[in-house]
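Can't paste images in this forum, so I'm doing it all in text. The chain is below; anyone willing to post the predicted structure tokens underneath?
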Amino acid sequence: MSHEHVSYLELLARGAGTEAYDRPVLLARASGAGPEVLAELEEAKQLALRVRAELEGRRRREAELSALFATAHDLAGLRDLDAVLRAIVQRARSLLGTEVAYLSLNDPTAGDTYMRVTEGSVSARFQQVRLGMGEGLGGLVAQTARPYVTDDYFEDPRFQHTRTIDAAVRDEGLVAILGVPLSLGSQVIGVLFAADRRARVFEREQVALLASFAAHAAVAIDTANLLAETRSALAELERANDIIREHSAVIERASEVHDRLSELVLHGGGVHDVADAVSEVLGGTVEFTETGAGAARRAGGHAVREGDDWVAAVSAGGETLGALVLHGQPELDPVDQRTLERAALVTSLLLLARRSAGEAEQRVRGELLDDLLDAPDRDRGLLRERAARLRTDSEAPHVVLAARIDRAAGDAADPDAGGRESADRQRLWSAASHLAATRHGLASARDGGTVLLLPLGPGEGAADLARQTARSLGGTLREPVTVGASAPVRTLLDRPDQVAVAYQEARRCLDALVLLHRSGQGAAAEDLGFLGLLLADGRDIDGFVGRTIGQVVAYDRRRGTELVRTLDAYFASGMSPARTKDELHVHVNTVAQRLERVGRLLGPDWQSPARALEIQLALRLHALSDAVTRT
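Text version of the structure:
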């Protein structure tokens, strides 16, 4: 055997590409081989290429048989129809060497055809396209129950082109398309496609291979349908058996829940006790919610299904108080539905009883606060006794808070503004009353808003309580609530008239917040700088001075420095360091160093217009205080 023949055998052995078979001839020609040698090499090359083509064909047939065997194996263990169809389409695309493969199914109900599985597709429009029966290449395949192939889709007049199909095919960029029918008996249920984005010719063997995959796909769909019908029939038999078996159990549950609900009502049970009892009896989870009763309310007191849940409205006198929601029992017997409805009725009775008791307590709390505001000369012993019954500690320091919902000025032109304002006041009073009850304080509706009298907690200040109250009421009502606070009232009943004075201070603070565009916030006079000094009844000058320049005064006292004097001269000189150093007879660097120290003590914004105004006022009050002390 010649060396050249060995070369061709090596090329065959390693599966080289066809271009590699030209190399021995080229090398021989380059080395000056004669015509006989070149002819022999050419003959050997052609023989090697034929052997290579035969080997490639056998490998391809082996791959096709392997893929068909794997598909048959998938069908034998069919669990997930989508997974089987996806595997069929993937194998068809791989073996035919196409860029795209896809499978469409007919929808008899909608009267059209839809994409079930795609592989290699990049266009969302193509993947979601729905076609009318008989349209496009697929329509031709379905109509004739025979494979069809087109080398150039847009130039092929054999089938019906539509704007929808052409737009989807153009969006995907397809040119050559092969389609084979999915048949069950004589009925075509869909089409399996292989397609390329360039012109190509599909060989007869490729058409036959795709038809084999289509036959497997049709069997998979038929098997899945039979399995579904079998499961459905079995489920119907099981349901019928369950109905017979559970009928007596349903009657027993209804009797049991009736007895337990009656016992809860007699022994003063709560809403959650009812929910727990019904949960245990019905076997699901029942919860009470104050929202989500819309559909149940429209059903006129009957339990309705919402998704996998059952909902029964809790209502009384035309007012919806909430709903009982049963989770975990999507299929509910009619008797159990009546049980849930009966539980909702019992819940409404318990809620009405609790509301009546709560409203009575709120009225009592409001009346006591009204007396402290309007009739402070009432008998103090009687006031103390009433406060004790409400668990209000009259000896603890309290803060008076004025709260209001402030809407935009444009709302005044709204014809419904009056009704909404009244509803806002009622909602605010209700939320404030609940907050007062939880903190052992008092609340009353007054002056278009609400007034609260709340005790201070350990380490808590009036400003802290105002901010906390604004957040709490705003969170409950889901809209901004503005809260102004008074200075602390040390004891409520030694001087009951101070509660009314504190309320006026809280109202002024509330109005100031609105004027300062701070609606929705809470604050006391101490938060408002010199404006708070004007608003507060106590005129806490020392407190204002301490909050504003106290750190500078203390620094001077500890170090013997002249920062306060430097500040006075700085503002008197129009905030000019050069003129300040002349006033103080010191070097300008000394002035700069002192002002830098002031900035570290008071913060970097101490020269802003608002801070500078407060600092100058505090300096004047400090100077007056020193003068009074010296005299």
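DSSP finds 21 helices and 15 strands in the chain. The first strand starts at residue 100 and ends at 107.
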